[in-house]
Amino acid sequence: MTDVTKVAARPYPFSAPDRLNLDPLYAELRRVEPLVRVRLPFGEQAWLATRHADVRTVLGDARFSRAASVGRDEPRLTPRQIEGGILSMDPPEHTRLRRLVAKAFTARRVEQLRPRTRQIADELIDAMVAAGPPADLVEHFATPLPIQVICELLGVPFADRHLFHVWSEAIVSTTSLSPEQIQEYLDNLHGYIGELVQQRRRQPTDDLICAMVQAHDEHQDRFTEQEVVQLAAGLLAAGHETTVTQLPNFAYVLLTHPEQLAWLRADPARVPTAVEELMRYVPLGVASAFARYATEDVEVGGVLVRAGEPVIGSLSSANRDETVFTDPDRLDLGRETNPHIGFGHGVHHCLGAQLARMELQVGIGALVARLPELRIAVPEPELTWKSGMIVRGLARMPVAW
Amino acid sequence: MVSTGWRIEVDAERCIGSGSCVGMAPAHFRMESGLATPITTAVEPTETVIDAAESCPVEAIAVRDHDDTLIAPS
Ligand code: HEM
Ligand code: HEM
Ligand code: SF4
Asked: Minimal Cα distance from B18: which residue of A?
């Protein structure tokens, strides 16, 4: 057992992000020190779990709590602490809110959105082809595709995307905005959604925001209006930068692994399996956050975590665990058993996971099928990567075909 | 067995091992080799198992009452 007070905490993230490469320190820690003290840019020190089994315990075991983070100086990547919301709740509070929207995101419901998503993808590719190469895959494909889908699902006018894109981008910029600006943008976003909620009351529509408003009005005792607004804003934002960033990341990985890409092209039925492997392989987050607080003493990775101590689980490290994945650093699009946790685990397992999967399958499938000559249009060192953000991804991706 | 009780099942073909049900209803589900499984098939009627079934992302959980009527997912 380790005595916390004697261990020096490592600065975390361990290093500045280098494209999609994962710091080799994770592999070493999994081997020799699976639970390690870390210090994030803001907030209190924490433990970091790096093995697949331990990360699943931290995320899935009821002895670890997100609600206990409220009121603590939570370890985090951004100056401002985002308090409240679904990701800061435990069952049964969490269940109450999650059930309000869970039905809209089941695999069955998401399947119904697939034809429309295909149509959007095809139209975007048509427009790229009509304008001729080069095109920026981020701006012309990966950004509008998921945003249009989430807008239609929620019932947010796509025409307003320039407004809420600015506001939501502001939340995840780790350094470039002041706390006051971040608060201002958040207020704008919540004000905007609040207005849509009022509109639904006057004139019901056939979308998720309206369904949430109706559930709220029927069960005033179960949800506050503030919760409905915050959840809808969270869906709009979480449905944004994640898939928007992963689509170009996936395209980049495929274009830099030509043999794997050729294997994928040979049979479109391989796309879903390939998307799972890309989810495992691409470390989207620069670092993991959203620490879980132990509610009692729990042993994790050979260390006794004391009640009240925060533990962070590294999804990216878990997804490279050699005891779970054969040859984990190799991209193998046909990988058969793939219990990756790229969408998390436990009660907070990504609400949008089935939607994101469908969007990624449609997006990658369309690029592969329609642009067989797709290539990156600049030499690799000239690609610009996002900086100061929570996620890894390309700022722009010039492509030709 | 109680004749007024409910039965819970997890379809292992569908389950994606999200761990959501185990987190929501740890008294009723546990993980086994990466997939969820009921701790006991027969349960006393409780909202918790309905919550789990309604929240499962792939609708792999079925809750039935004593005469086999599907209670959840709706
Ligand atoms: C791996 C990446 C990310 C994950 C898993 C994630 C997850 C989430 C979740 C679950 C929420 C809802 C939390 C709540 O209601 O308390 C949320 C809120 C939010 N996220 Fe993220 N997010 C990610 C990246 C981003 C990015 C890249 C952006 C910006 C474009 C963003 C912007 C926001 C905003 C604006 C909110 C709403 C905050 C509020 O209403 O207080 N997130 N995020
Ligand atoms: C490739 C795309 C995406 C990835 C990699 C991703 C990843 C994740 C992860 C890892 C978590 C768990 C965070 C934690 O437990 O600490 C999460 C939670 C969540 N995600 Fe996603 N996400 C994606 C897309 C989406 C989309 C499209 C939506 C919305 C429609 C969404 C909505 C949410 C929400 C609401 C939660 C919080 C769930 C809860 O607290 O119960 N995500 N996501
Ligand atoms: S919630 Fe559904 S998919 Fe997730 S572990 Fe339980 S049964 Fe499996």
From this structure: A345
Give the model confidence (pLDDT) of B7-62 as tens digits: 999 999 999 999 999 999 999 999 999 999 999 999 999 999 999 999 999 999 99
Domain count, chain B: 1
Q: Is residue B1 part of a domain?
A: no
Chain B residue nearest residue A102, CA to CA: B55
% of chain A at pLDDT higher than 90: 76
Do the Cβ atoms of B24 and A106 come within 8 Å?
no
Chain A CB within 8 Å of residue B54 CB? yes
Residue B69 lies in a domain: no
Residues 6+ apart with CB under 8 A from A127: A140
CA-based nearest distance A118→chain B, Å: 21
Q: Has this prediction a pTM greater than 0.90?
A: yes
Per-residue confidence (pLDDT) for residue A234, from 0 to 100: 86
Choose the most confident range, by mean pLDDT, from A13-22, A124-133, A200-209: A124-133
B68 located within any domain? no
Number of A/B CB contacts below 8 angstroms equals 58
Domains in chain A: ranges and CATH: 4-400 (1.10.630.10)
Q: Is A138 in the pocket of ligand 1 (CB under 6 A)?
A: no
CATH of the domain at B38: 3.30.70.20
Query: Is residue B56 in some structural domain?
Result: yes
Nearest bound ligand to CA B11?
3
- What ipTM goes with this model? 0.93
Cα separation of A232 and A77, whole Å? 23
Cβ of A242 below 6 Å from ligand 1:
yes
Report d(CA A43, CA A77) in Å as an integer.
9
Mutate to test the pocket of ligand 1, among A74, A168, A349 (most ligand atoms within 8 A of CB): A168
Range of the structural domain that residue B28 is part of = 6-62
Would you call the peptide bond into A381 cis, given omega within 30 degrees of 0 as the criterion? Answer: no
Taking alpha carbons only, the member of A184, A244, A261, A222 closest to residue A101 is A222
Query: What are the pLDDT digits (tens) for A152-208?
Result: 999 999 999 888 888 876 666 666 677 788 888 888 999 999 999 999 999 999 899
Report how far residue A285's alpha carbon sits from residue B49's, in angstroms, rounded to the nearest whole number.
33
CA distance, residue A354 to nearest chain B CA (Å): 7
Cβ burial of A178 (10 Å; 0-12, 13-18, 19+) is exposed
